[in-house]
Amino acid sequence: MIQLSAVTKSFAEQQVIAATDLTIERGEFVSLVGPSGCGKSTLLRLIAGLETATSGEVTINQHVPANAETAFVFQDPTLLPWRTTYDNIRLPLELLGRTGAEPLAKIPAAIDLVGLRHEDARKLPRMLSGGMRMRVSLARALVTDPQVLLLDEPFAALDDILRQQLNEELLAIWGQRKWTGVFITHNVAEAVFLSQRVLVMSARPGQIVADVPIQFDLPRGAELRASGAFAAQCGVVSHHLRQGAA
Amino acid sequence: MRETLQRVLLPTATLLIALAIWQTCVTKGKIPPYLLPSPAAVGAAFYRNGADLWSGTLLTGVAALAGFAAAVVLGTLVALLFSQSRLIRLSGYPYAIFFQTVPIVAIAPWIVTLTGYGLPSVIVVATIISLFPIITSATTGMLSVDHSLVELFRLHRASRWQTLWKLQFPTAIRYLVTGMKSSSGLAVVGAIVGEFFVGYSGAQHGLGYYIRSSSDNLKTDELFAAMICCTLLGVVVFAAINLLERFALRRWTES
Fold it and tell me: What is an example of a Pfam family matching this protein (chain A) (predicted)?
């Protein structure tokens, strides 16, 4: 369970996040949408333990974020260019000192899970397409079996069809593994499609102004995207987003 | 194919024409050979002193490479240290600049006094002159690490040592190679300057010695032959680093 109580964050006198309370249950998939510069990324980085709150408290299962099993997927794939796919995915295990046979067996499993082919395992990042690099990045995040997966606009740079495909795959993986997911995007349809809850943030200083539950059944796919109910749900989120931006 | 042929033939033609003009000017203009020897005279000097020039080039090459290797190791170690803390960097960097600004010709005699008239002195001079580009390029490289990657390492509780070896050092390699390219040429210069002052006692002499003795004796044709050997040595060392970059370090230098 991720819990934020009265969290604020300022950078050099400038308040980026106004007092925020938030609870995300274990195994929940939540998206965070908001206008550019509203502090969504900062909020995610607070949960990751990459930033510390100016006031208030962030906990993951009652512990400080730095001690949690958290994985982070960045906006860019952020792969080490001199490492092959396999070795990039291996990196978190290496850093955590888990290099026994059992943890290493998770690498081929992660490669399968994100839909990479095994002949890609020996390739360097520059030989892969943008979408494939993002899959490697996702596999690297999943290889440690994290309890919490934080994603900071991971598919923003991809074309729409590829983005939809990766959304479906990500949701399928979440269905199998049930980590707690926090996903940042400024694409309303993507947020509604992926999440069980969409949180809407206001313009800076950011604050959560709406908490919209999304109740579509899994698996979700193309039919859902084309449905009237989906459009209506996107309409609700967009409405809150416009109000928050004003 | 035609493109490659042009790339080889055209510069060769330029060279031949230049040599022909040079030869004609010297013979028709009656320029004394101690001022400007003719290409034919330089060729004859090559022929006469071929064995000496070859062993001299080898000796200078060994000294330059040893100095260069020492500079790469030493410079990288200093850069590793600089990359670890801003305070260390601020304290040490001005003295690294000192190595670049000090005229090598001015301190070479003192180094020779210190380390004796032999190969070690030449290597030390070559090391000092080629050290600076290595320090700056490697330091820049280790500090040019992608910020997100640093956070990825932090997120997985990487130790300082892990971050250094698995992230900072591999990132620095491509910068280091750029530094090595300027540094290798300087190492050859350093070896020759060193030999100017050392001379080497005994039978073997480097190119710096030949340059000094042939110019002292106004044997300008031999001086030219030695100059050409120096240039070729520099080219060979530079090409070797390019090959190293293209083949052995490709994984780190291409992005």
Answer: ABC_tran
Residues 6+ apart with CB under 8 A from A242: none
Q: What are the tens digits of pLDDT across the range A132-175?
A: 999 999 999 999 999 999 999 999 888 899 999 999 999 999 98
Domain spans of chain A, in order of start: 2-69+147-245, 79-145
Alpha-carbon distance of A92 to A104, in angstroms, equals 11
Contacts of A70 in chain B (CB under 8 A): 155
| Token representation of residue A110 | 């992660």
| Nearest-neighbour CA in chain B from A143: distance (Å) | 12
Compare all CA atoms of chain B with the CA of A72 and give the residue at the minimum distance. B152
Three-state SS at A192: helix
Q: B residues 137-176 near A, CB within 8 Å?
A: 146, 148-149, 151-158, 162, 166-167, 170, 173
Residue A70, H or E segment:
strand A70-73
Nearest residue on chain A to B167, alpha-carbon basis? A80
Q: Which residues of A23-58 are buried (b: 16+ CB within 10 A; e: fewer)?
A: ebeeebbbbbbbbeebbbbbbbbbbbbbbebeebeb
The number of beta carbons lying within 10 Å of the beta carbon of residue B46 is 17
- The reported pTM is 0.84
| Residue A84 to residue A122: CA distance in whole angstroms | 5
What span, in angstroms and rounded, lies between the C-alpha atoms of B65 and A137?
Answer: 42
Q: Looking at the domain covering A2-69+147-245, what would its CATH class be?
A: alpha beta
Distance (Å, rounded) from C-alpha A50 to C-alpha B110? 53
* Alpha-carbon torsion, ordered A120, A123, A124, A126, to 10 deg: -70
Q: Which is nearest to B250 in space by CA: B180, B174, B141, B165?
A: B174
pLDDT tens across B154-193, in order? 999 999 999 999 999 999 999 999 999 989 999 999 999 9
CA distances to A2, B189, B198, B205, B216 from B208, rounded to whole Å, are 71, 9, 9, 8, 12
Three-state secondary-structure class, residue A187: coil
- Go through the domains of chain B in sequence order and give each one's CATH number: 62-253 (1.10.3720.10)
Please give the structure tokens belonging to residue A220: 């979700």
Amino acid at A232: A
The ipTM value here is 0.91
Sign of CA dihedral A220, A223, A226, A231: negative
Q: Are the CB atoms for A198 and A237 separated by under 8 Å?
A: yes
CA distance B77 to chain A (A): 22
Q: Which of B148, B157, B173 sits opposite A78 (nearest CB)?
A: B148
DSSP SS3 for B200: coil
